[in-house]
Amino acid sequence: MNRVGKLVLVAGILAIALAVPIAAAHLIFVYEPQATVKPVTPVVFLAGPDASAVSLTVTNKSSPQISLTIPITNSTETYVYQALEVKVNTVWSGPWYLYVTSCSYSGPNLTSVELIVYSTSGSPSSPTGTITITPSSTSCSASGSVQLAAGDTYYIDFQVEPSLPIPYGASSGTLTIYFGLSNESGTVTLPAP
């Protein structure tokens, strides 16, 4: 083989050696997945079986807002059963702690409103926990948090304790509650707005 033949052979081998990586590069695929996912909140607030007794309004958009008309009489307390229902989604691992971020109240003076939270398979006599709201004509504050387990459903009862006596024996007040969720334990205490 002459010198030109050797150069042609080397050039041919070199061309094949360079072509193999270039050909292999064309076998690489890029996959860009696209998915449309509906956002899921950790909890959903629903009107409970006895929500009509307190004219309950529930808004699950942005900050969950609960508004209810509380019956107030000259009795030492009024108890409203199963006014609110809270469903905890299973997609979010827990535990979650439910608390009141803020509240407002208009009506006759109250000593307190207890939010008694218990499993729908349980009883209010052995609650999961309680949150205490102290409303007045000038402010509203709340303390306490309740641990919620993923996949469970809870009722919230309202125990209303008025500041006696109530003029004319009976009246009503409007309580608006903004709930918050945290995955950290501890009691949350809020200052008056």
Describe the model.
The structure is a single chain. By secondary structure, the chain is mostly beta strands. It has a single domain (43-182), classed as Jelly Rolls, CATH 2.60.120. Helices cover 12% and strands 45% of the residues. The protein has one helix and eleven strands; from the N terminus they run αβββββββββββ. The chain has one helix spanning 3-25, and strands spanning 43-47, 57-59, 65-73, 78-88, 96-106, 110-119, 129-135, 140-143, 146-148, 153-162, 170-182. The strands form two sheets. It has a six-stranded antiparallel beta sheet with strand order 1-4-10-6-7-8, with no helix packed on it. The chain has a five-stranded antiparallel beta sheet with strand order 2-3-11-5-9, with no helix packed on it. β2 (57-59) and β3 (65-73) form a beta hairpin.
Summary of the model, kept short:
The chain is mainly β and 193 residues long.
Q: Notable features of this structure?
A:
five-stranded antiparallel sheet; single chain; rod-shaped; 193 residues; 12% helix; six-stranded antiparallel sheet; 1 helix; 11 strands; Jelly Rolls; mainly beta
